[in-house]
Design a protein that fits this description.
Elements (H helix, E strand, L loop, with lengths): L5 H5 L7 H52 L17 E2 L5 E3 L3 E6 L4 E6 L5 E6 L9 E6 L7 H8 L3 E3 L4 H4 L2 H5 L3
Parallel strand pairs: 6-7
Antiparallel strand pairs: 1-2, 2-3, 3-4, 4-5, 5-6
Length: about 180
Amino acid sequence: MKKKGVLLGCLDGKGFTLIELLVVVLIIGILASVALPQYEKSVMKSRYSSLMALTNSIAEAEEVYYLANGTYTSDFEVLSMEPSGCTLSDDKSTCTYPWGKCVLSSEYDRATCMNIQTLYNAYVIYFPHGNRSYYGRNCFAGGSDRSSKYAKLCEAMGASFLNENDLTNTGTTFGLQYKF
């Protein structure tokens, strides 16, 4: 029986070659490059969904206030819902969160919530009984490029995309006071 060398005995049989390890790392890299954008899109949709839910609850409270008083208000304290975790402005029309703001505007008959920290989007609900000839739900995206990921998020969530140029006809509270 022949004795094997010390070095040959260690390399005998068990372990991976460098090529095998490189192939595995390459496959993991390809999977990560496909999965990461989908994950980012899911996180953005989740954040925007919570923004929509908050704006919807504010708009519903405004409708309750309108039914009781015949007008809309820009005062968060008189609504039937109490926004938690925010700091109210002196005029009680702006509720500031660590991630952004919610604004009531009786001038434009709308409620707006915007995430200016991580999302760069805003969700706006124009009230149906307001002085405007239109009402509905709109998504504002930071910037004016329709191909940006924020504009695509608006359309993916089923809201109309409006950019900064559209703000002249819809009121400038969002665009001028809360630039991204």
